[in-house]
């Protein structure tokens, strides 16, 4: 379908917004009046500039508080409308959005509203313009699409039609199932937005917390499906009012927005079609985005760290404390492979490589992840269809070229192929004895990332669209220095789990990780074991430094979970944290951060435990903060 976006959805000046919108791939824009008022230059220039960028101007909005007023006010409104029609003529906008009246003086009389809108439609017709009438969910009288439709039907003028907005329909608790019975040719425009369910009034939610489809809790795919069932085949347009996008870079927002519409189309395409509606099924096939299916991900094949000559040695020492063995060296590059169980860690200090440039910006850090998939090329195709940039690393003679993309945060995601025998390990001279040794740590349980404020929703959408991951329930964690918001994305088999964390305050562990890194990045990797007590003993014996947990914590969990004294003592002595949900248990401990950047977590899941120990996050973050303090105190001595 044709795709458009309202200029209010992006930050910046009008020209900047248009450039970002065009660059992201949109076909058109809705121009918000304020953007025009603040534009310093002739309106005709905006029209020409949009045309040069290949964008149509689809709509001008909003025209407020028009219908159901006194005769006197109506006359003034018509004068006001004529001024806007002239402006629309210069702008080349064919359609004006009139939103339902929110004033205090609105007649309880649909006939009056219809008569006044008829006159507006007549005036619009003289200018070869059209009017679209939209119900705001907080309108004084008209709040629903069906009420707006009854009025439009009464007006019965070819120059007035209905504008639908998913937000207004879905934010109200009302049944909206009759939407699919509207006549599609009388729908002049369709606006789409999502929102989280925050228990606010629709007005507050709408003005501050709208999000792109797929980023909130509303059934926008079901809404689009109903719209298609009407026979509507016009433009779909995003209209977001959001405190976050108002301050985010417009180019990133526009890319995120465009991805959300494609993802929405894919989801709407997958919804079941009612049997009687063969034409809807056909239209879906033609109109809706159809990327390759998401990959089946069997796990993390390897994690790649960027290091330099100095940090390589202490990092390798940390890996050895965790029980990793050096498995081999790369055939042509300054790259080493470490492993135990199914875990593979690549340590890269090759000069002039992607890892080297990543290191320059981020220091020692995770620069790439490799995901094992059922079909690596299909995974790459899907990622590219969703606008991810392909990554081509340097490949030596007889070495494997692994399909890869840049993640939204700038690191690399490789796709390895479970079915293809040629594996990345063939690029290494492997020591078979080291690879065969028994392991205490078996696989990667989860990879947690810290993101800059404002990046949570876009990042969740990236992983949903590109990798087919699904978001888990959001949690808010209390760090001693501020709140951290977290949402994990994972695959249905839970062989890939990625908690994504953001912090609005500057001093939390999450925010410090972002600032120390110079941007988004992995702040911890959780490794699974089948025997956490043996793992704790063995790590300690190898010299690993474990994050100390205050003893008060253990009094609390004994009270909460009724643990027996022996088990409690074992947990306490090993600084192991504990959580339980139903029959499922979660035991976990942490290493001290490596150069204040990232750390490892060792976890054991028992009996189908499916989360991340969120109740223990505050004690972990407090312990990390305390560790930072004592390091500083020591330095100051
Ligand atoms: O918040 C508003 O006033 C407003 C204006 C125009 C719209 O299309 C809308 O959905 C909301
Ligand atoms: Mg709207």
From TrEMBL:
* InterPro entries on file: 4OHPhenylPyrv_dOase_N, DSD, Glyas_Bleomycin-R_OHBP_Dase, Glyas_Fos-R_dOase_dom, IolE/XylAMocC-like, VOC_core, Xyl_isomerase-like_sf, Xyl_isomerase-like_TIM-brl
* Coiled-coil region: none
Domain VOC: from-to ranges: 299-418, 443-592
Q: Which sites bind Mg(2+)?
A: 446, 524, 601
Q: Which residues bind a divalent metal cation?
A: 134, 165, 191, 239
Q: Which reaction does it catalyse?
A: 3-dehydroshikimate = 3,4-dihydroxybenzoate + H2O
In short, the EC number is 4.2.1.118
Domain of life (superkingdom) = Bacteria
Q: Where are the transmembrane segments?
A: none
Which pathway is it part of?
Aromatic compound metabolism; 3,4-dihydroxybenzoate biosynthesis
Keyword terms: Lyase, Metal-binding
Q: Which cofactor does it need?
A: a divalent metal cation
What family is it from? Belongs to the bacterial two-domain DSD family.
- Stated role: Catalyzes the conversion of 3-dehydroshikimate to protocatechuate (3,4-dihydroxybenzoate), a common intermediate of quinate and shikimate degradation pathways.
Q: What is this protein called?
A: 3-dehydroshikimate dehydratase
List the source organism. Mesorhizobium album
